[in-house]
Amino acid sequence: MAQINKQKVFFATYDQVWRAAHAVLKYPIAQENQDTGIIETEFIKGIDGWLPPNEQRPPSSGIRYKLTMTFAKGKTEGRESTRVTIDKRMEILRDFFSEPEYMETDGLEEKIIFYRIERELVINEALKKAN
User: Fold this and answer.
1) Is residue 61 over pLDDT 80?
2) How many CB atoms lie within 10 A of CB 99?
3) CATH topology of domain 4-49+59-130
4) Measured distance between the N- and C-terminal CA atoms of the chain, rounded to whole angstroms
């Protein structure tokens, strides 16, 4: 099963990162639990999901994926921090009867989500200082 885990540490509280992740995640959520630190999306059809800017045509209609985000609080260099892991599980459904084939993710969507979370945290911090 081909999966890539992507992680990033944010120097912000757990609750701030949790809220920022919800603000940037635009997919339907299948399950979430803030106490255990998990957000899992529904399966997203490839044509409804994120399309890299270098792609000229939509992906195959048989591709689908789900994102699982895992949050862990801790301290890094004496500062409160939150580590976020994104697991993007992609699969191709060839036909109705076959088992799905797992695909490797290119990691671009995960990087975009991390970037958006970081921007959301920066904006929220700036709004706090402005008030």
Assistant:
1) no
2) 8
3) Alpha-D-Glucose-1,6-Bisphosphate; Chain A, domain 4 (3.30.530)
4) 49
